[in-house]
Specification:
Helix content is about 15%, strand content about 40%. It has about 325 residues and is mainly beta.
């Protein structure tokens, strides 16, 4: 019999047919910007008013029912809020914990409360995803807590398979320069009287929604350090100063200094960037680390570079 990649063709065709049959069973449902992709043998998800109702039908969480809703704003999607609400809805838990879990493009804030002290005991879950100005909340119905304990993992997988349109790019003006901010990586807010922006880094790019950097202008201009392209020895750190050249005629070239801190454990480098245009200087400054603790998965260096390269002299 003819063979394909070492497998008899009849067997290979059977595998293909099985894969196509399984692919055909996958379905999707949309709420707001999020589209959930799932298999009917794992979930049954139906519209319910302005939201969705998701019932788990796979063996490890069969019977658990989750109400999925959307509301305006993102500030309520925090570990503290989820923990307090989970305690209110399911007060008799013997064990509880809250985490922010990377889930594909998203970050799932998940509060889990167990009936017993064993991590494998039946559990109640409450979670949320903050995305593009909305909060998507996943509230398990307390009366559906049963003998199975994998509902947290099943919900995490469901969110990880969700898709959404491309995130918005917001243009903000600092002094006489426009910057394009990728909202999938950054939130931003005005810093007050001093002007400029505070840039919290979004999860899952960062471990938690962490204030990471500031973007500001200064007048009169402050000089930027001269690029020298080599490490300088310091008492507890090393600093590399380089030039990030403009990529457009109306762009700016930035002097970027990267300081590697003298920590025994890993701490992301401290990054400063500066450019002078006219009588103003423009500064991107990573916030000083709080001791030698790791607060982010990693500095999103490419996100910082993209932000600097997006700078355009305002017309």
């Amino acid at each position: 019999m003819a063979r394909w990649l070492g497998i008899p063709c009849g067997v290979a065709l059977a595998f293909v047919a099985l894969a196509l049959a399984r692919a055909e069973t996958a379905t999707a449902v949309t709420l707001g910007d999020l589209t959930f992709h799932y298999k009917p043998e794992a979930w049954r998800i139906v519209p319910d008013g302005d939201g969705l109702v998701a019932a788990c039908v796979q063996d490890d969480c069969r019977g658990a029912t989750i109400d999925i809703s959307r509301r305006d704003g993102e500030d309520g999607c925090t570990k503290g809020t989820m923990a307090a609400e989970a305690e209110r809805l399911f007060p008799d838990a013997r064990r509880s914990h809250e985490n922010i879990l990377p889930s594909g493009r998203f970050a799932l804030v998940l509060a889990q409360r167990h009936v017993g002290r064993d991590p494998g005991s039946p559990q109640f879950v409450l979670g949320c995803v903050a995305w593009q100005g909305s909060e998507y909340r996943f509230a398990m119905r307390p009366e559906t807590v049963g003998t199975q304990s994998w509902i947290g993992g099943a919900l995490h997988y469901l969110v990880s398979q969700a898709t959404a349109p491309e995130a918005r790019v917001e243009t903000v003006r600092i002094g006489e320069v426009d910057f394009a901010i990728q909202t999938e990586i950054w939130r931003f807010s005005e810093m007050g009287e001093g002007g400029g922006l505070l840039l919290p880094c979004r999860a899952p790019t960062c471990r938690e929604p962490t204030p990471l950097a500031t973007l500001s202008s200064r007048s009169p201009a402050e000089p930027c350090p001269a690029p020298q392209g080599a490490f300088e020895d310091g008492a507890e750190s090393e600093t590399l100063i380089q030039t990030l050249p403009a990529t457009a005629p109306d762009g700016l070239s930035f002097t970027v200094s990267t300081t590697l801190l003298g920590c025994r454990n890993y701490v992301p480098p401290h990054i400063e960037a500066c450019s002078v245009h006219g009588d103003r200087s423009y500064h991107l400054s990573a916030l000083e680390p709080q001791g030698f603790q790791l607060h982010v998965w990693d500095i999103p260096e490419q996100g910082l570079v993209d932000l600097l390269r997006s700078a355009r002299i305002a017309r």
